[in-house]
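Look over this record as teaching material.
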Amino acid sequence: MAIYPLIRPLVFRIDAESAHRLTVSALRLKPSGGRPATDPRLVVNLAGLTFPNPVGLAAGFDKDAQVPDAMLSLGFGSVEVGTLTPFPQPGNPRPRLFRLPEDRAVINRMGFNNGGQAAALERLLKRRHRPGIVGVNIGANKDAADRIADYAKGVIVMKDVADYLTVNISSPNTPGLRALQSRAALDELLAGVMEARGSQRPPVFLKVAPDLEPADIDDIAAVAADRGLDALIVANTTITRPPLRSAHAGEAGGLSGAPLHDLALQRLRDFRTATGGTIPLIAAGGIASAEQAYARIRAGASLIQLYSALVYGGPGLARRIVQGLPALMTRDGFARIEQAIGTD
């Protein structure tokens, strides 16, 4: 792990998407059986699940459920695979993934590229009885005539192999997808999702965009409560552009990494207020250290997720965050991480 700063310049000579593919291929060779980093003080209970620590891998890294156990062995308390659509699709034309090293950021316009739910289902069935929480992020195919039906299909196909399901309507890279965040459309979508699930298991989470107006936040919070959602993931990538230094700053797509930090933190606080703390929140966006993870927890997050920070922090980042949290808790007088949730 400590060698990553030395080899990162070599990795950065390869285009971002090719480097990512090579990384996943290397992880597939990693022996299975590794367990997530565990510390009794860091256990979080959410939606009937026991997370060994609050640091999760966000969707997008392991799109096709090829390496969930390898990522768990790197210290993550949970791994979210996907986004998976009912049918395979190539996504948008390359290049579509860009590093912005000067900004410690990433821009992507991948477009839900994945091998489809059937192929991922076979892989997840094979690891079904292994330890570790693995969630499945589901989406709609770009050319779907009925996107709500696509989400319902995803629920039906994946519900028996997912510890939780995430409904992703917040990617900016599928035209019209974010329109499903409007109140009427979201209510119809979640009604279909809950009907397809049929029972109380697995839990259903909703991943929202950071680019929302106050009225949108209130509407999403109300529908989430009415439909019995188990958690909200706040937030996906942003289409806004704060001042950036990289030559790739003008690329179209969703921006993630350090520049998303302040916006994502504010949206977390907004959703904490809008929900009144009645719906668990999972924080994502611009988290790259134990201090930042802890700040999100104090702002109302039960769990945090990261992905882009791995590009700059390397494979040891999750474990470093997990190891750094207890000292912050002790400083503030908390014996368990759950005691810190929402204390700000």
